[in-house]
Amino acid sequence: MNPIFFLPELVLGIGLLAIVLVGTLLSARRAFNLVTGMSLIVFLVAFLAVIGQLTAGIEYEDTFFKVDTLSLFAKAIAMAACVVATLFLPKYFENNPDKQFEIPILMIFVAIGLCVMASANHMLMVFLGLELQSLPIYVLVTLERKRLESSEAGLKYFVLGAVSSGFVVYGASLIYGATGVLGFAEIARVLENGSANNLMVVGVVMLICGIAFKISAAPFHMWTPDVYEGAPTPVTAFMASAPKFVVVVMLLRILNDPLATMLPEWQQVISLLALVSLAVGTLGAMQQDSVKRFIAYSSIGHVGFVLIGVAAGQGGIASVLLYSTIYLVTTFAMFAVILMLKDPKSKSDYVTKLAELIGLAKKDQTIAIIILGIMFSMAGVPPLAGFFAKLSIFQAALQADLLWLVIVGVVFSVISAFYYLRIIRRMYFADEPTSGSIDETLLARAIVSRSTTLILIAAIGFFAIATFAVWGAVLFEQANWASHAF
Within a 10 A sphere around the Cβ of 48, how many other Cβ atoms? Predict the structure, then answer.
């Protein structure tokens, strides 16, 4: 067996062993800086390994593992996301004496799980990948032990995550009971030779529900607002990007590879999840004034748009990859900005309330413009990237005869513009608070603490969003190329 097929996983595994050894031999403060730098190098080398596989046209498949255009595309995006998330750590912990070098190590564990999920070709590998990326995240969420919110979020996430893993295992068990096999190719052959029975349908539904939890699709979203709010900000940014992206890719592979002949059955389930996610995410975000809870509900709404593309079947794969990549870039730009907005009344805390952004444009025009671009893109305003992402999803759904789902998506997209524009209004047109509506002590509290790394990440994200009409065809071409795995 040629090790080049598993090169990114080998790089991550060997790097992890070396970093753990270094971390245990140094003091916590020294270990944090060195481990963070080493982790950044490991992620970069893993990213280059994936690019090397792409350039060489590497393809491989056995019973459990599959390397193809889709898995390599997912790994490349995931490793790039890991690099950016690691760059967030120094800024967040610069004034925090409790520097925990375990964070980058746990992120490498997550990255290994993401690579396993991206190349999973068997139900056992699906479960193994999910657990490899989930268990370290449970720990990452609770690392700020002095904060009650962090411990509460970690406990909720762990308990609900265990339940979702049970759904995945039980769903896979029912699929095995209906087909007698767990490999993707074998399941596809069994289904091609006969129609799916009720046991198979129930198994697929339970499997989808378990995976829906991992991407915070409603009604399996209940953990998302509390976990986003309780986790350290770099961890929240990491959770909202790479793991979600790869889980969506894994869902695409499961539905369009072994379960392709069951499109009429699982399409109804995915469409229902998309509808509920759009409703919960849009209406929930309108009620939030917490920054992280707002982002959490917004992400649930965006998952709804992704699921519209998933429901379109193989014709929507490229659109889903395009949308997910654009959302990932937008998310990192947003969190880079959040990490630069400080609360002057606290030495280490960052802004937690949207009301603290009121009047921000008068303090820092550059940051305000970046936030404006992010909000407009998320709302789907042309000619920004978010508009083209939603347009691509709707086109795929129309081609799949899902007109009703497109209408629902357009309606909720218009509604969601309300709360995105509200943030812009607060930044540029500071209004006087009415009695009881906004705590006056929060007004214009946010101050900008510039960081070269963070302003560069935010600026690159803003530039990518603003100029998507120029370069976006390249990304869509790559997404379309990745979808050829089917």
Answer: 15
**Which DSSP letter does residue 261 get?**
G
Query: Is there a contact between 424 and 373 (Cβ–Cβ < 8 Å)?
Result: no
Task: Tell me the average pLDDT across 314-339.
Answer: 94
Distance CA 475, CA 50 (A): 17
Axis-axis angle for helices 317-338, 452-466 (nearest 10): 140
- Rounded to whole angstroms, the Cα distance separating 327 from 240 reads 10
pTM, entire model: 0.93
User: What is d(CA 328, CA 73) in angstroms, rounded to the nearest whole number?
Assistant: 14
As given in the structure block, the two tokens for residue 40 are: 């950044």
Give the range of the structural domain holding residue 296, as residue numbers without chain letter: 3-483
* Per-residue tokens: 127: 């479960």
Structural tokens at position 336: 């880079």
Parallel, antiparallel, or unpaired for β 60-61 and 66-67?
Answer: antiparallel
| Cα 485 from chain centre | 22
Number of domains in the chain: 1
| 223 residue type, one letter | W
Tokens read off for 278:
């759009």
Structure tokens at 68: 């193809």
Torsions phi, psi for 95 (to 5 deg): -110, 15
Residue 170: φ, ψ to 5°: -65, -40
So what's the pLDDT on residue 486? 76
pLDDT reported for residue 361: 85
User: What do you get for the CA distance between the two ends of the chain, in Å?
Assistant: 24
> 362 CB contacts (<8 Å, ≥6 apart)?
430, 444
Report which DSSP code applies to 347. Answer: S
Residues 22 and 38 sit within 8 Å (Cβ to Cβ): yes
Residues 6+ apart with CB under 8 A from 211: 130, 168, 247, 250, 251, 254
CA distance 293 to 229: 6
Residue 8: HSE in the Cβ half-sphere, 13 Å Cα cutoff: 34
Residue 402: which pLDDT band, with cuts at 50, 70 and 90?
A: very high
Tally of CA atoms within 13 A in the half-sphere of 386 that contains its CB: 24
- If 0-12 CB within 10 Å is exposed, 13-18 middle and 19+ buried, where does residue 450 land? exposed
